[in-house]
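Hi everyone, sorry if this is the wrong subforum. Our group has a chain we'd like a structural model of before ordering constructs, and none of us has done structure prediction before. Sequence below.
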Amino acid sequence: MKSAKRILALAGVIIILGLYLVTFFLGIFGSPNTRNWLMAAVVMTVVVPVLIYAMLLVARVLSRRGSGNNEKKEREEQN
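Answer:
Right subforum, don't worry. Here is the predicted structure as tokens:
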């Protein structure tokens, strides 16, 4: 689970930094889409961490559910 957290965190950082770099370069070169890219970067700064948190929360709940079923089966087999 620790490695999954690290991978998701690294992917989130790369996505957010990539959006800000694109916005920066478009601002330097005077693209008409710079404002749209900036808004996308600002929104993704909030959305990406929330999505990563939600995925980790779902993974934690599902892993607990799966481990509980295995423990029940093992107890039933022992009796």
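For your construct planning: Residues 1 and 60 are 8 Å apart (CA to CA). The first helix runs from residue 2 to 29.
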